[in-house]
Amino acid sequence: MSAEPSSSAHLEDGEHLAVLGYEDSFNRSMTLWANFALGFTYLSPLVGVYSLFAVAMATGGPPSIWWILIVGAGQFLVSLVFGEVVSQYPIHGGIYPWARRLWGRRYAWMAAWVYIWAMIVTITAVASYGSGFLASLFGLPATKEVTFGLTVLLLVVALALNFTGTKTLATVARIGLSAELIGVIAVGLYLLIFQRKHPFSVFFDTMGVQGHGSYLFAFLGAALAGLFLFYGFEACGDVAEEVANPARRIPVAMMMTILVGGVSALFAFGGYILAAPDLAKIVAGKDVDPIPEILQSALGDVGAKIFLVVAVTAFLSCVLSLQAAASRLLFSFARDGMIPAHRWLSRVSPRTKVPVNALIVACSIPVLISLIVYLGPDGLITQVTAFAVLGIYVAFQSVVLASLRQRLKGWRPAGPFSLGRAGLVVNILALAYGIFAMILLAWPTSTGNWFNDWIVLIGLGIVAGAGLLYLFLARPDRASDAPAGDAIRVAELLRARRNGTTAPAASAEPAPATE
């Protein structure tokens, strides 16, 4: 694996962007650590572990912790593939421009359409889960009205902070990173060392969750514990044009996000299991929100209150990062004329250099979804979350598949970060893992309620169907002349430019036919 170009020559950020057909119009104020903090607070192990700990324990028992290692390894492979892609294409928007440059406009439009909705729904889910911490912090009852009000408050505060510019985003992301590390690693280590009530062998004890059947099915059912945790690293690439030296730094930030996030999640998940006063009650599904009791028992009233402050900070930072990533994707989509109101959505504030209108959309739609959750039946937020996870994985694998297709056509990634000959093997393994993960996510449950059992696939079908209908009726792909399917040609241009050979920018060539 290499993080250096094949030539000693180095392309400046603006020069690299010019080869891709764009002007350098953002403030590059994000450092490697700020970019990593953005991805980490989006991935947010504190959010993931807290949200699904009880479900995982009731479904798969203590061995469900091993899903963190399994999914972490699989997503690390995906991050390596993304690293090569973003190193060649360090441009705003992540999934959408990557899929377009690797395959074609229609393909990218569908990938981005699913990804946008999954990301917006994720914003809603994270803000909703965070409202519970905020309510506990101020001693408010966890009613639907309180949850809705605090969810909207988190969304609006995050929007206000995002409006102030990339420096604020980077600062809050770093604060959120510190809060995550304290709330996950520090607390997890404290629980493991000083509050352990169970032996480490409990991680291999199913505690009878399988009943009279095979434990394999119970273990597979607990996969969401890991699958919900390990996305967010792609957000490092969503803000590529605001990062200094992105072709080198973003791949590193993505890998750091996976590794540090995985270790953090293991400490937290393991600590909660080992410190649980009544583990059997949690595994039996009789305690649907066990973490407050675990923390109260281990930390006392003052310690639990401090943890709530840390948790609220982490949730706010996560919502902030999600909004930023979603707005940059919307901006990238609009800049290429691919969605309605694209001129309005692609506007960048001349003062703060952020896409303000795209940020408004990234806040207002989650507010509307929160209203639907408030008016809907209890438990709807869990179903909403399940759709978000599957949608994210579908979008991820669209890039992995497109990358593999280009490799088989002869593409050799030309960014500073390169896997070399290992790239093809890693790409195949990443795709195999992604297909396995999507099957687990889409597999219907067996509650007896047909709609609830198939809600994840129904939701994905509605989003994909609406996207296909708009795509073939409105033909947004024809509204853009942005380069597409040019991975091999751009790689040649970058190598030529580094070697000092004059070559026309990729955007000056006729764009390949849409696929």
From TrEMBL:
Alphabetical list of Pfam families matching this protein: AA_permease_2
Tree of life domain: Bacteria
Principal subcellular localisation of the protein: membrane
Keyword Transport: yes
Organism annotation: Leifsonia shinshuensis
Location relative to the cell: Membrane
Keywords: Membrane, Transmembrane, Transmembrane helix, Transport
Keyword rRNA-binding attached: no
Protein's recorded name: Amino acid transporter
